[in-house]
């Protein structure tokens, strides 16, 4: 079942791909909790590239990022984690966290993304190679969670490449709203 703002964000007991525990919300900060498909997903890897590029600016405005993949630790390390990332990556091989947050599956919406998002697909394929052709039907989703553990924004992808626009995330982070935490 889908979640909506201002519901409490379900608690997750996540560790990153290096075995460190992940905090979903911290005092004075918002968290972008992003659920990704397979570790070899071209759309997902392109989004990880975007989040890595924008991380410093978003973090300076009070945003933490947590990425959760429906994949094994080894696969996340091989694809998204092969380079150091400035935010934690978590492996959810059983998709339990995805289920808790109501993430859906759809072959039709996967195919829709392949047909309608060709430029992004090709950019992502450059990152993952031919492994990007063998992905499941899980859809992406993003949640912005406040410091009290409440969902500020819930965004369920309409297709396999649809993510919350970073402009929307930035709108939730007006200058001076959140204090910076060292």
Ends: how far apart? Answer: 36 Å
What fraction of the residues are assigned to beta strands by DSSP?
15-25%
**Share of helical residues:** 25-40%
Rg over alpha carbons: 15 Å
Mean pLDDT: 87
- Unreliable segments of 5+ consecutive residues: 177-182
- Oligomer state equals single chain
- The neighbouring-strand order within the major sheet is 3-2-1-4-5
Following the backbone from N to C, one meets helices and strands in this order, namely: EHEHEHHHEEH
Largest sheet: 5 strands, mixed
Count of discrete alpha- or pi-helical segments spanning 4 or more residues: 6
- Structural class of the secondary structure composition? alpha/beta
Shape: globular
Number of strands: 5
Describe this structure in words.
This is Redoxin domain-containing protein. It comes from Rhodanobacter sp. IGA1.0. GO terms for molecular function: antioxidant activity; oxidoreductase activity. InterPro entries: AhpC/TSA, Thioredoxin-like_sf, Thioredoxin_domain. Residues 3-174 form the Thioredoxin domain. By secondary structure, the chain is an alpha/beta fold. Helices cover 31% and strands 15% of the residues. The chain has six helices and five strands, in the order βαβαβαααββα. A five-stranded mixed sheet has the order 3-2-1-4-5. Helix 1 (42-60) packs across helix 5 (118-128). The longest helix is centred in the N-terminal third of the chain and has 19 residues, at 42-60. Mean pLDDT is 87; it is low at 177-182.
